[in-house]
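@channel sequence for tomorrow's demo:
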Amino acid sequence: MKTKVVFFEVPGGTDKWLNGYRKDTMPMVDALKKRGQEAEVIFFTIEKRDEIFDYVKENAIAYVSRINPGNLKHEAEYFDMLRELCALGVIGMPHPDAMIGYGAKDALVKLRHTSLVPEDTYAYYTTEEFKSTFPKSLLGGERVLKQNRGSTGEGIWRVQLVDALAEDATEVPLDANIKCTEAKDNHVEYHTLGAFMDFCEQYIIGANGMLVDMPFLPRIKEGEIRLLMLRDTPVNVVHKKPAEDADAFSATLFSGAQYRYDAPEDWATLVHAFLAQLPDITSLLGGYDLPLIWTADFILDTDEHGNDTYILGEMNCSCVGFTSQLELAESVAEEIIACIGIEVETAV
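structure tokens (generated this afternoon):
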């Protein structure tokens, strides 16, 4: 009988604690064991892929993926293994295609017909699309380009025109001067539009390459609001305020942003509006169960009536950490047990 919950990790990486595990993994394992649920960690390696697959297939009722994509050298093979396990009835937390659907930047484009994302949000999968459309979108105002790869703001650029264009312009000319600020560290570069688009081709070419293009929201200076979700329940809110520098728009710690942890009740308007749209989100992103632990980042905006609105900037569910709040492991364990119980009851 399959009884175990398996946590997947990979050896090495900068996210490991002194014991070789992610700092937030063993607290979840221990919380499950405390509740009488068998749980263990398996380190995925491509050399032992088949052996791991057979063991999990025979022994696990569910898996929890705790692998930072930046540490995963064989992502395609790992995801294929997870798909096979899910197809055989192992409960995926999350399903690999949910990881892709929620984590990829083009999730924003899939959600742009909801109130969460501006309509003029685009995804570029080829350099031809990018070079054809971006000069037109930039004509309408400041834009933010986001690469699909990378982390901590790398390859996320705020793009501004330096000089005004002629009133009858239909797109920004390639020789126009632009100001580009990267979210990684808020450094500023000046380029012609053509040269900068040539530089950005690196983000589109290759596996999982793409660029997302969306309007710049100036109220990012008031802070980014991150909802930390446990399935369909918000467990805390992180308010991330960029540094005071005039060009700063990044909300990463590395760039000097200040973090504050709030209760979901402190952001009731945002929370209620977001929860009301979860059915649309799950449907538009593939119909998979909500991830076990995931985040949604929002930026304040203002509607035509002067009211506050919240625009979705990105989501993440590949391996969301909670190392600064390890007590959440108890709630995670309860949710895992509840999901297993629901699945077993449904099967019976």
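heads up for whoever presents: Residues 122-216 form one domain.
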